[in-house]
From TrEMBL:
Taxonomic source organism: Pseudomonas umsongensis
Protein name: Uncharacterized protein
Length: 51
């Protein structure tokens, strides 16, 4: 009879995959020259002045 994997191990594996995926996505995001993160930062600044 095989033991089912514990919920803790499933969560650890999912968390590890999330960390790896996030790191990979951030590295791809930082390699883009026209990343829209600067646009969103400018929009936040402009809305701060309107208040």
């Amino acid at each position: 009879m095989k033991r089912k994997p514990d919920l803790l191990w499933i969560l650890v594996i999912l968390f590890g995959l999330g960390v790896v995926t996030t790191g990979y996505a951030q590295s791809l995001w930082n390699n883009k020259t026209d990343a829209p993160i600067e646009v969103s930062a400018l929009q936040q600044q402009s809305t701060a002045f309107k208040r």
